[in-house]
Amino acid sequence: MLLTMSTPNPRSAAFTNDQGQALFKCETPSTAGHKTTRIYKIAPNADADDMRDRFVLFAEIEWHVLAPSRFRFDGKEVTAKEYMHGPKIGIGWHRCFTGPDGKPYRWEADIKAPRGYTRSRRTRTRTTCAISQRSGKGAIGKAQHAGLEVFEEGRHMLGTIVLTFVYMLKMFQEYEGSVHSSMLGT
Predict the structure, then answer these.
(1) DSSP for residue 45
(2) Where does 92-178 show beta strands of DSSP type E?
């Protein structure tokens, strides 16, 4: 399932499926101080004649600079550090978390974009659950919107994948920006 983002910034984007139906909406109001991204999930509509989309709050990410950011979802509040822990030794661009099914999942950022995996502890194999797609201008080939491709292995926890993807992509974009700035000497 490909979720296309309405903007390259996942913190202020609608995520639509192949049929153009918005499944998630992210809003990050511009405020002084810390910002909070609200992630809304489409709510089933009981009235077949009412064609309006209704969204309910699914999760929030409260962004902090000096303290760990915070996640609020499923009636709980945890720091990003508690929920999505990084490497135990050294540095690295991956974050691990436990899915609602109790299995371990991992986002890794490579040169292209973040990818989400699940790893079998027994067989030590990795199965791709989701891949981020960058937008492209279409200089060679067709223009492409930014998006998130979620494979069968991740569809049962689509909301969790969107939540962790929004967090991971912001962190990755900040890291990329700091690398470019240091390379340019600014």
Answers:
(1) P
(2) 94-98, 104-109, 114-119, 126-133, 147-150
Structure tokens at 131: 């891949």
Domain encompassing residue 133: 2-184
Question: What is each CA distance from 139 to 5, 7, 142, 143, 179, in whole angstroms?
Answer: 20, 19, 8, 8, 25
**Whether the predicted model's global pTM rises above the 0.70 cut:** yes
Judging by beta carbons within 10 Å of its beta carbon (0-12, 13-18, 19+), is residue 118 exposed, middle or buried?
Answer: middle
pLDDT digits (tens, 9 = 90+) for 10-42: 899 999 999 999 999 999 987 777 799 999 999
Strand-pair partners of 108: 94, 115
119-172 pLDDT tens trace: 666 667 788 888 888 766 656 666 667 889 999 999 999 999 999 999 988 887
Following DSSP, what letter does each residue of 55-98 receive, concatenated?
Answer: EEEEEEEE--SSS--EEEETTEEEEHHHHSB--SSS--SEEEEE
Indicate the pairing of strand 126-133 with strand 76-79: unpaired
Lowest mean pLDDT among 60-64, 67-71, 169-173: 169-173
Q: In this structure, are residues 80 and 97 in contact, taking their beta carbons and an 8 Å threshold?
A: no
d(CA 55, CA 154): 21
User: What is the number of domains present in the chain?
Assistant: 1
